[in-house]
């Protein structure tokens, strides 16, 4: 009776009061545009932001067993049009036995707005909308309405509210990208949803697009059978519609449009596997990060940092006295602590930024030219120190000398993690869907893996005895090791030019020269037995501050495409079109700051024999450039369970699920795909 009473009160309120409330009280909509000066003929995104009072809720496009979806009546300039709204992922709310699909916090509905073509720049475009919506608590519902307006002006199309819209888009469901089948048997409708067996499922719930397809209040049963997630839902009597809708897993939504087909038998119930953040998954993710960090020590992008620490390891020796032994252990612990701390800090920053709606991933810091210019100055200073231009007395013998493990470990973790290696990509991808504490443990595991070789050498003298004996050769080695650091500086200068343009490259080189003059002056004073280290340090800091202030942030940048394969820029729409043509598709994601990516492109991808094999098999190639932050690519990588580059995918005709290729490629690996 209580449920019937609630439903009748809601219906009466909707039927009798809609004209009584002129001003919204509990949900306050606001009309916002991503682009305030759109280009004529373009399509932009506008939003109706719904600011919701605490204790109240609004409704999804399918409100469930009670409630009312918001309705909009647009008044637009001639030739303009608005498409259907995109809703964020809702959650189920059961009141008095009725299950509703609602939003209990601020949210936004996104609409595509087509701007008329042929309009002169400066033309004002008034956008008007009348809206009706229902605001409810667990006791009462209040119909509300309002009229809202926004004036746009035809212009150059600059994005005005990009970060805000990125945050709203991050909450929208994304296409699953795999074929989902459904079958009915008796009073049950069952869905077979391709979902990686290694990915945990937490708080799974299916929200149907249309009312009357399933019994909303009935329990939804989920089980796993290998790479398939099976949903068993209670069907309504006579309900024969297609169970299209949104599958929510841990609050993240996937749009699915199933087709009739075979559904395997139920597998292991989820409540018998453990949900998201289960101990097994957390331990596997930490183990993968540990192994990935260890392998990272031999990746091309890490070698310059390894060369720094080689000096201190050789000096420690294997026949040290007790005091030297303690010093070696302290140095190893210091190196490990700093490597772990930096990885945890970077991981924490990723989690915070993603929580705010940014589609960032691992090595996100290298997508900012300001960070690149600071790294350029730092690497130039290290290279000059190793070359003997000046000394760091407090460290003794170079920046990598024993006793400075903390600085070296922090430097290793910061510079040596732009690329994801084997095991590391899957582990970091899992970290992004684990609970925060577990995710931080995964990032810590990465830092520990990176430091593990030096930790072992610090605590096991027998390993140090395998290193060459200290001697005069170390001075020569130190000079030789400055070469890879100078090459690293050259690579950073190139990357700065790629990201921010030639002007930024010239400014960066000029500031590096300014800092080098300071260190040269320091070296001259040190040769005369005087101090002067502060002079070089101050000049380097000043150069860094100037660089951060003057480097432009809006210059276009793109990773070099592979000419031999006639690559096209990646987009999900283009990928879908190529698949619809029945063509095999090779998709790879790269960035100019990823050395592994560049090595793979040089030795494996940009090869005439690969181009010939791809041409014969009519393989299309798409390249996703992540040199600069791109939310679209970031979300696609996240959907593949990855948080960084490189990532190589191969789609066979008729197969929506790609084959994930190794992160270290050979021409033979790619040619074999076409056989």
From TrEMBL:
Residues 549-675 form the Thioredoxin domain. The keyword Transmembrane applies. Its main location: membrane. It is a multi-pass membrane protein. Keywords: Cell membrane, Cytochrome c-type biogenesis, Membrane, Signal, Transmembrane, Transmembrane helix. Residues 1-22 form the signal peptide. InterPro entries: Cyt_c_assmbl_TM_dom, DsbD_gamma, DsbDN, Thioredoxin-like_sf, Thioredoxin_domain. PROSITE patterns: THIOREDOXIN_2. SUPFAM superfamilies: Thioredoxin-like. The chain crosses the membrane at residues 282-311, 332-352, 372-394, 406-432, 438-460, 480-498, 504-521, 533-551. One of its GO terms (biological process) is cytochrome complex assembly. The keyword Nucleotide-binding does not apply. GO terms for molecular function: protein-disulfide reductase activity. One of its GO terms (cellular component) is plasma membrane. It is found in: Cell membrane. This is Thiol:disulfide interchange protein. The lineage of its organism: Bacteria, Pseudomonadati, Pseudomonadota, Alphaproteobacteria, Sphingomonadales.
